[in-house]
């Protein structure tokens, strides 16, 4: 099993984290590629050095940041069979996969297992909820290495930035620019304005990289975190374990909690000892118990707050998210439900 990581920018921002492709050699010698990344010359050269033909390209999600690399990868390996999660969609125009450059794709289906399912059994989440934008993710179990492969369902936040990120890009976020000053937490405007603009209040380069990385993580996880000036406490609340990223935890999974819990139950029937997500740290030493713990916020199905938003139950293994950091995501979730874009199961 091999992992290929690249730097991946988010949307129209200059915030970046890592994105991961996993390659597994099947028993017959061919290569099985999970969540393809950009087929750069370096990536293609590394793939060729593995030996064997790329026989299967697997898109395990609907998500744009993974789908975007599938068409160019299929052009590099036209003989490979292409497998995709069910109910693919695009926005703002509903374009079928052939118009995106993906032809003859086969849908991943537990009821009609692909020919490699004996080596890599699968569990499909969805298509579930979210109105015209169904959430889908397919998990796989590589029995030979006892590894669970997921995409975005869970992550493990490393304490230091991934090596694939350029140090200069990470250190950029150590600077106290105007956006950081606006996310000043409980500080007064005058106190925020008095901060050194260039991040010179942190002299050590490693410390600047750490602060930049912590700020990047909070922006990725919360979009609009409460305190970017001192990101340490909020950062610590999501590190050191498998977690469901706040964006998914707040905006997606509460509305499809029954489907998610069934999916988690099915996955926990596998005897894995590590989890390999498509972002952040990986592989992560974790088994079914740790994986299930990441989803304990979904317990208490049916509970809602006064505005109809499903309430999180008391968190056991999964961390309690800082209330002030999740405020913007909570407001967005309420708005999506009120206009009917998201309807709970």
TrEMBL record:
Pfam families found in the cross-reference section: DUF4336
Q: Which InterPro entries match?
A: DUF4336
This protein is called DUF4336 domain-containing protein
User: Lineage of the native species?
Assistant: Eukaryota, Rhodophyta, Bangiophyceae, Bangiales, Bangiaceae
């Amino acid at each position: 099993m091999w992992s290929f990581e690249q730097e991946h920018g988010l949307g129209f921002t200059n915030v970046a984290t890592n994105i991961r492709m996993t390659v597994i050699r099947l028993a017959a010698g061919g290569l099985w590629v999970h969540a393809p990344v950009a087929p750069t010359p370096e990536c293609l050269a590394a793939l060729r050095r593995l030996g064997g033909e790329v026989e299967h390209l697997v898109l395990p999600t609907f998500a744009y940041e993974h789908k975007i690399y599938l068409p160019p990868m299929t052009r590099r390996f036209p003989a490979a069979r292409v497998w995709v999660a069910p109910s693919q969609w695009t926005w703002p125009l509903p374009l079928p996969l052939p118009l995106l450059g993906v032809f003859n794709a086969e849908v991943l289906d537990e009821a009609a297992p692909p020919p490699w399912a004996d080596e890599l059994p699968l569990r499909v989440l969805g298509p579930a909820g979210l109105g015209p934008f169904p959430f889908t993710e397919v998990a796989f179990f590589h029995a030979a290495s006892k590894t669970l492969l997921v995409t975005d369902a869970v992550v493990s936040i490393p304490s230091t930035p991934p090596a694939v990120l350029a140090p200069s890009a990470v250190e950029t976020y150590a600077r106290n620019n105007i956006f950081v000053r606006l996310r000043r937490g409980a500080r007064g405007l005058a106190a925020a304005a008095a901060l050194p603009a260039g991040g010179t209040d942190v002299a050590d380069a490693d410390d600047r990289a750490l602060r930049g990385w912590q700020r990047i993580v909070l922006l990725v996880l919360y979009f609009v975190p409460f305190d970017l000036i001192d990101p340490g406490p909020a950062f610590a609340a999501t590190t050191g374990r498998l977690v469901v990223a706040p964006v998914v935890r707040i905006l997606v999974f509460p509305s499809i909690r029954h489907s998610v819990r069934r999916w988690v139950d099915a996955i926990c029937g596998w005897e894995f000892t590590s989890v390999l997500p498509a972002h952040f740290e990986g592989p992560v030493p974790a088994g079914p118990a740790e994986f299930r713990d990441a989803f304990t916020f979904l317990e208490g199905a049916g509970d809602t707050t006064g505005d109809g938003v499903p309430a999180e139950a008391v968190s056991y293994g999964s961390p309690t998210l800082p209330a002030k950091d999740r405020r913007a995501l909570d407001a967005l979730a309420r708005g999506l439900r009120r206009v009917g874009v998201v309807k709970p199961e």
